[in-house]
Amino acid sequence: MNFRKQLKAGLLTNNPVLSQLLGMCSTMAITTTLFNGIGMGLSVTIILICSNVVISLLRKVIPDKIRIAAYIVIIAGFVTMVDLLLKAYVPALSDSLGVFIPLIVVNCIILGRAEAFASKNGLLASAVDGLTQGIGYTAALVVMCIIREFLGSGTFGKGVFGADGIRILPAQYPALMLILPVGGFLTLGCLIALTQWVNKKLTEREAKKEAAR
Amino acid sequence: MKDAKYILRLTLTLFLITAVVAGLLGLVNYLTEDRIDELTRQKAEAAMQEVFPAGNYEEIPAGEDGITAAYRADDAGYVVRVSVNGFGGAIDMMVGVDNAGTVTGVSIISHGETASLGANCTREDFRAQFVGTSDTLAVSKDGGSIDALTGATVTSRAVVSGVNLALDFVKEVG
After folding, report:
1. Which residue from A76, A152, A177, B79 has the fewest beta carbons nearer than 10 Å?
2. What is the reported pTM?
3. Per-residue pLDDT of chain A in tens (213 residues, 90 and over written 9)
4. Nearest chain B CA: its distance from A120 CA (Å)
5. Does this complex have an ipTM over 0.90?
């Protein structure tokens, strides 16, 4: 097991959002301010690690035929717990993310990793997979947030550095469209293209290395 | 017989998982319930103090049509809690109205509006526009006096309609 390899996979070659194209809905909907992006990313990472660990532990107990139902119950349990805990201890984040926390239940990243990884691998590997995939998801969200917030509101770090963030562009210049769903699609499209390009370069380089050997 | 055993195993496994998860959820709910209630109550109270400062709020029967609660504040005015449909679901807000039927303050308790657009309805400069008015309101696009939020006309209209509801309610009661 190789942590660096898994981290690279999570961030680039097998990024949940930009390569596996999972969890698009939340990515599009909440990436308007940095605060939302970080909050959502961390919540998903925590839930992903917990559900991966539990599902990996139970992988030999859960019969194949009912595995999806069992996974969903476990995931929904964790999501509801995180939702309640956020409401009680971080109300600002819970207000801001609203319905998207409960919707993590149907975020296909979590079920996808349970099915593709945790149900076939050991405890530690699954925990690391949850962490690296979570970091990949968070990274994708944060990049989306920074781009959309900068072009759409002209600020950086809204909610993280004060309520209005740091103003970079004067208020009259930003293109409002970037904050709207349209902007989500455009930004995501460009980012996916960029990731694919980088991944292709990486594969080419590796192939060249192989050939030189 | 083998089939029956297998089916029983499926059922029992799923039942056990569900039972354990339900038990844990009950525990977390038990631990957080009081705190969440307390926070919700504090939030509502702070909003009431903001829109119409008073020492005592007495709950009065609320009307229908989006008015979820109403309070008589120190015999000097009313605080009306209104729920209206915005761009992203219900906007829950408090409106303070004095005995003369003039708006003294508007506070948004919760909303699901788009960040950076409709979510700006919580901003002081937007809400301040309502203070001191007593006529039925409209956004400037509809020929009224309220400047809508940039890129969030639907949200602005919703807040305006909420304030109008509160004004109508106070007119009926007072």
Report:
1. A177
2. 0.78
3. 578 888 888 888 888 888 888 888 888 888 888 888 888 898 899 999 999 999 999 998 888 888 999 999 999 999 999 889 988 888 877 877 766 788 788 788 899 999 999 999 999 999 999 999 999 999 999 999 999 988 888 888 777 777 677 888 787 778 878 888 888 999 999 999 999 999 999 889 988 988 887
4. 19
5. no
What is the H or E stretch that residue A211 is in?
helix A181-212
* Partner A contacted by B174 (CB < 8 A): no
Residue from B2, B8, B21 to probe the interface with A (highest A Cβ count within 10 Å): B21
Residue B8: closest C-alpha in chain A: A63
What is the Cα–Cα distance from B99 to A115, expressed in whole angstroms?
62
Interaxial angle between packed helices A67-89 and A34-57, expressed in degrees from 0 to 180 and rounded to the nearest 10: 140
Q: How far apart are CA B79 and CA B122, in angstroms?
A: 18
Do the Cβ atoms of A99 and B89 come within 8 Å?
A: yes
Q: Which residue has the tokens 């455009």?
A: A186
Q: What is the DSSP string of A80-146?
A: HHHHHHHHHH-HHHHHHHGGGTGGGGG-HHHHHHIIIIITTS-HHHHHHHHHHHHHHHHHHHHHHHH
Domain borders along chain B are 51-173
B74 — alpha (psi -120 to 50), left (phi > 0) or beta? left
Nearest CA in chain A to B120: A164
Write the secondary structure of chain B as one string of H (helix), E (strand) and C (coil): CHHHHHHHHHHHHHHHHHHHHHHHHHHHHHHHHHHHHHHHHHHHHHHHHHHCCCCCEEEECCCCCCEEEEEEECCCEEEEEEEEEECCEEEEEEEEEECCCCEEEEEEEECCCCCCCHHHHHCHHHHHHHCCCCCCCCEHHHCCCECCECCEHHHHHHHHHHHHHHHHHHHHHC
